[in-house]
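Title: Request for sanity check on LARGE xylosyl- and glucuronyltransferase 2 prediction

Description:
We are preparing a figure and want to confirm that the structure record we downloaded matches what your pipeline produces today. Could someone re-run it with the sequence below and paste the raw structure tokens into this thread? We only need the token string, no images.
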Amino acid sequence: MTFTYIVSVQIHLKLPISLPLIHPSLGSRLLERDVLASRVREVEEENRQIRLQLSQSQGLAAQPAEGNYGNQQWVASADTGPEDVENTAEERANHSECSRSPTAEKCELIHVACVCAGHNASRDVVTLVKSILFHRRNPLHFHFITDTVANQILSTLFQSWMVPSVQVSFYDADELKSEVSWIPNKHYSGIYGLMKLTLTKALPSNLSKVIVLDTDITFATDIAELWAIFRKFTEKQVIGLVENQSDWYLGNLWKNHKPWPALGRGFNTGVILLYLERLRRISWEQMWRLTAERELMSMLSTSLADQDIFNAFIKQNPVLVHQLPCFWNVQLSDHTRSEQCYTEVSDLKVIHWNSPKKLRVKNKHVEFFRNLYLTFLEYDGNLLRRELFGCPSQASSESTVLQQALEELDEDDQCYDFRRERIMVHRVHLYFLQYEYTPTDDGTDITLVAQLSMDRLQMLEAICKHWEGPISLALYMSDAEAQQFLRYAQASEVLKNRKNVGYHIVYKEGQFYPVNLVRNVALRNVNTPYVFLTDVDFLPMYGLYDYLRKSIVQLDMANTKKALVVPAFETLRYRLSFPKSKAELLSMLDMGTLYTFRYHVWTKGHAPTNYAKWRTATTPYKVEWEADFEPYVVVRRDCPEYDQRFVGFGWNKVSHIMELDAQEYDLIVLPNAFMIHMPHAPSFDISKFRSSPSYRYCLTTLKDEFHQDLSRKYGSAALKYLTAQRNI
């Protein structure tokens, strides 16, 4: 008699408590941190017991009444083919192995390698890393083989992310190109799709094992489970792979389809366990080269990049491969057997979006997979800055400096939050979208520099229409807002056709808008000799880009310290027939359609521009600095940065102009240039300034401290600023 047991277990996994890298209160709250740490350990132990209960229950539910099933992991060998085990051992391996899997040692360092080139792949890597960090319980060391673009993006991101117990190393892909450039490759990944073949040479010689991942991978479990499979390798096995889930290597997709040789269905190289130490011992570099040379004589080129060469090698050396259960690489391309990798979607471990269609691929569970992917895509990366308790790690120099700076702050200071904001490190993702820039030959090129948040996104198309030169924009956004922006930009005909706009994401954190920090991110990532420092809610006059380049030459900006002032105007109308000339602007000014900027609420901000003189001026004229002057200017790229103590509303531009004056920049007003401010709802920060006495008190305090710092930096020449402020 056969009995069927149905086991129902309700599982409520508890998410790990995320502690920020730097606790907002120190000293007196260390005890509270210890309590939290203890609670985290309790939660992790509870989760471990729950997972154990789940795995035991699944094993009981799946076990047949008679006989035993073994953990029959298929190992490729010279006399074993996949057709022998297609629907038996493979399925049992996929659905039974999880309860018997070895585990990585606590605090064991896990090494992960990835080839990444370009702007789009860099975005994909971030989502991959988030999914790994979310589940991980072990220290990690990421090894990135990158081009120049990805190196700049990812090095800045990880340096500003400061995730505890995470190390990152970069390797120059250009130095490896000669190793694979001789191989013709039809795959869309190009030469970078062959780079995984070079890892024994690229990675440090003392690195014995590494998990190699494609950028289009999403983890649904702790990567330590995958790392632990290295312990199941036999002495001869050097590489771990999941069987290819499409019919590609069977050669039956179309008439005369001739794939590279492979063992049965072949293997997919989106997830690889590389035993580097053993690979070097068997002369891997020589072996894959000989394999590629032999097959290319008849195949002429690769169709699936490195995957073809790996498979041809395995065909000749099947004893060297360890086949992984296919839930470690569920391949979501069209017409695959991926649905056979799991009985429930909760069984899967790794999702591989290996179709060019990516999220649009066909699969009956694709909605679940897509939602999982989108969860990590929009997940707040700041929450992943949590410590691994029980795994001591050496803090980076950046986090040590930050910690010391925080400890020096007085928590009882009324302006503590303002001071803390000044030294807070925000995650930064440079060049979020494709960026291309070709320098001009005359050395006069100029970049428009601005910052914005989600509520000013609608200004981007208009600015791009008014300014044809390069643009550097820093966007202050959450992870979810950054993805909204990405969709907006990709849907806009204007934005997607402009490649000379650098979009740099500064991720939200804290209670204030760090406006000057965001401005500095845009300023630092300029590639031209000159910058036009503006705000995103201003539209420059048509032709301003060319006019400024000519003015740079005429005023000898290369050899003199000048700040060229672009007079600012405003309209209160949301629909405006934009003036095409100075004469037309003056007519609209007289008719009351336009006004000089902020004349009715903050006259001092732009009064020194001397609009009366500008009306009839035909040549540039010099003006003197006055208190609270905050014009929009063109300067050399090496100008001083904005002072980051000023956050939110107030004095963020005033302080910058003051420092330009302290450094003896001449303020020169351009007679035939103008810009117009477009109306919008008041910002949240100006509302806080108007309603909060504490906010205004702290702004006054920061002003005084800025004056003192200016005096220390520039000596007696800076006394005029303090005097001017007292006379207001």
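Thanks, this matches our download. Confidence is low (pLDDT under 50) at residues 1-31, 54-99.
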